[in-house]
Amino acid sequence: MRTLTLDDFLLKLDAVTAVEEIHGLTFDLRDHYRIDHVVYHWVSAEGDQYGFGTYSPKWVQHYVDKEYLRIDPVVVGCFQGAQPVNWKRLDWSSKAARQFNLDAVAHGVGNQGYSIPLRGPNGQFAIFSLSHNCDDDVWAAFTIEHLRDFVLIAYFLNQKALELEKNRVPEPTRPLSPREVDALTFLAMGYGRAQVAEMLTISEHTLRAYIESARFKLGAANTIHAVAKAIADGHIIIGGAARDAAGGWPGREIATH
């Protein structure tokens, strides 16, 4: 940084009292690191989006209109992991993902990107991303050099967003019982209700009672929503293969550059 140290930025962030001020700080970060974009993106378990950054308003609106949240490999990859990730290492193999990438680059997002997953209270999920146009070696060296800064910036940006947008953080949910967890886990893995009831050695009527109880505790509109919220809030954890068998639950709920 030539004109802005990391400490300077964190002091400015700490003094922020409105979201609009954070939006302005992302432009300072972009200019300081001499990259194309800096973006903070908050995604709820219901698929609602909120954020700020340097993307063009045209791309942001296009992203929402196209419902790219459902297929964006950056969102899906960050949701499934906890470590910072280079976009090139994500799964871009599907036709939809490749088309999305072409569209993003055409809108000036950049051919390189790096994102840091963020999680807060009661299942809050967000992503801090940086993107640019350059070759792979230049980008790799850049991210290695500044990774510590980016992790700190991401953490404090998320803390400030939580402070200013308290109404966006979901209320704490009541804990699920072991049987409710089992029922939702098997459903998330793709098993039908009859199969789940047999595996738990209970009747389908009893299974229905467990599912409805879990749905009520999670504030979910239906069973699919209950499973998605249980995963997003950390009540149940299933591996990648199980998620695929279930049709990719998280991808349907949150599945930006």
TrEMBL record:
<keyword id="KW-0805">Transcription regulation</keyword>
<dbReference type="InterPro" id="IPR036388">
    <property type="entry name" value="WH-like_DNA-bd_sf"/>
</dbReference>
<keyword id="KW-0804">Transcription</keyword>
<keyword id="KW-0238">DNA-binding</keyword>
<dbReference type="Pfam" id="PF03472">
    <property type="entry name" value="Autoind_bind"/>
</dbReference>
<dbReference type="Pfam" id="PF00196">
    <property type="entry name" value="GerE"/>
</dbReference>
<dbReference type="GO" id="GO:0006355">
    <property type="term" value="P:regulation of DNA-templated transcription"/>
</dbReference>
<dbReference type="InterPro" id="IPR016032">
    <property type="entry name" value="Sig_transdc_resp-reg_C-effctor"/>
</dbReference>
<dbReference type="InterPro" id="IPR036693">
    <property type="entry name" value="TF_LuxR_autoind-bd_dom_sf"/>
</dbReference>
<dbReference type="InterPro" id="IPR000792">
    <property type="entry name" value="Tscrpt_reg_LuxR_C"/>
</dbReference>
<dbReference type="InterPro" id="IPR005143">
    <property type="entry name" value="TF_LuxR_autoind-bd_dom"/>
</dbReference>
<protein>
    <submittedName>
        <fullName>DNA-binding CsgD family transcriptional regulator</fullName>
    </submittedName>
</protein>
<feature type="domain" description="HTH luxR-type">
    <location>
        <begin position="169"/>
        <end position="234"/>
    </location>
</feature>
<dbReference type="GO" id="GO:0003677">
    <property type="term" value="F:DNA binding"/>
</dbReference>
